[in-house]
Amino acid sequence: MHKIIAISGVVIKELYRRKDFYVLFVLTALITLLMGSANFFGDASLVGYITEIALLLIWISLLVISISTAARQIPSERENRTILPLLAKPVTRGQLIMGKFIGSWLAATIAMLVFYLFLAAIIWSRGEGPKISTYIQGIWLHWVSLAIITAMAICGSVFFSAPSANITITLIVTSAILMVGRYLNLLAEQNPEPFQSIIYAIYYAIPHLEWYDLRDSIVHKHPPAPWWAAGAATLYGTVYSAIFLTITWLRFKRTPLTNA
Amino acid sequence: MQQIFPRKATSVDLIHVLLGNARELLANHLIKKADVYFHAGYYPSIFHEAAQARSRDHLHSEEYDEHAHEKEMSFLSKPKDIIDRFGRYFYPTEHRHLHGHETAEILPWLKFAASVDPQNVESYVITAFWLRRELHKPDQAEAFLREGLKANPNNLTLLYELARLRWEEYADPLKATNLLHFVLNSLRPKIQQEPNPEQIEIFHRAAILLAHIYEQQRDFKSAVSILQQTLELNTAPKPEVIQQKIEELNQHEVEPPTNQTCK
Fold first, then answer.
1. In angstroms, rounded to a whole number, what is the distance separating the alpha carbons of residues B243 and B114?
2. Structure pTM?
3. Distance from CA of A25 to the nearest CA of B (A)
4. Do B108 and A222 touch (CB under 8 A)?
């Protein structure tokens, strides 16, 4: 286990060495503060629009941070040929994948906590914010979704030849799931065969990341989902992350360690 | 025709340059966003059939069809499968409207809409409605309507709303009747030449309000005269109701008006 922790520690250090997080955080903070400074008919207690805009920016930023961090891990080790001494420690390929996954996920987690703390400070300094229980559940489920997304990006890194292709495709796929995943069954019903079966197959196969997006409930001050449902979604997320990591391991153990 | 409000500003601002005609689409989207907030996040997506041709009457009128609105908003049928059923725990699934100070949350989107496309009259009308009805800020509502009139000089919908505000919030029959006469006089020739439903509706609403103000002022003769115009121009959706009201007014003893009004 300590080998996995050591590998993940290196990945976390990468987060604060790279500029992505700082740029995205400053951008989010600036836009949020700019929006917060606007005056709407003399009412300074309005928080809905700020929460909505800030949460959208947080989701976009964390998608970019988690995918770009995870997608670069294995290809950069192979490209720099540091993977050979790393595996000679000895570290198994499975431990390497787990270390990279946990490191990328925790790096995204640190970024996520900074973003959400900033948002909480802005919201509750203005007036009545969302329900705290919904806010906490929203953070929790967002964290679980980051695990799935990170695992997807790690998985993509052993299939795609370049990290850029992996980052682009993973971003498109995750955004598409978040935007239309919930409606694929409606879409399937409106299509003739064989498209209907194909859309249904996609609907049942994809990880339903939209379950983890509680932005509407937070913004519109709804109560949280039942905690058993959040627990079940966490289990679902764990299973999907495990599936992606297993596929990664099966592929990676047969892959040559260096690019010819 | 003499203009009541100054001419439209012609300066080309940054939003205009950046967005061009997309401003109209964006403004409509922002008004829709306000509607989403009004329904506390419970709103049909583009994948739900109910999203097609929805009425926004409930956003700026107390007189919308509640039953039809409920029908429009029952877009969420029974869950189709386990994923659908389970997913519903994580987003709003209950139809409700914001009330009281909560409604202020829709205002930023409406103000954004007005900033993006100042020619979108709907954003001014809806904002003014909520500012005065739920938030009790008639002064802010009037200021925003006047802002709309600066961008849309002599817009008859905005003038009607301003008249309504002057009457309902300030009991100011003089300004209200002046504005309503201007609206009716502007619309009359247009309706006589080439009527369109929007003009007919605004004429009818302005006439009803003006007749109501005259009735309150006990100037029954003027009230009857205004109502007769709606019958002559065929703008009343229910002429029999108007006819009944005219007969009712005719039965009153005609008394001199209590306040001076300007026609």
1. 40
2. 0.84
3. 24
4. no
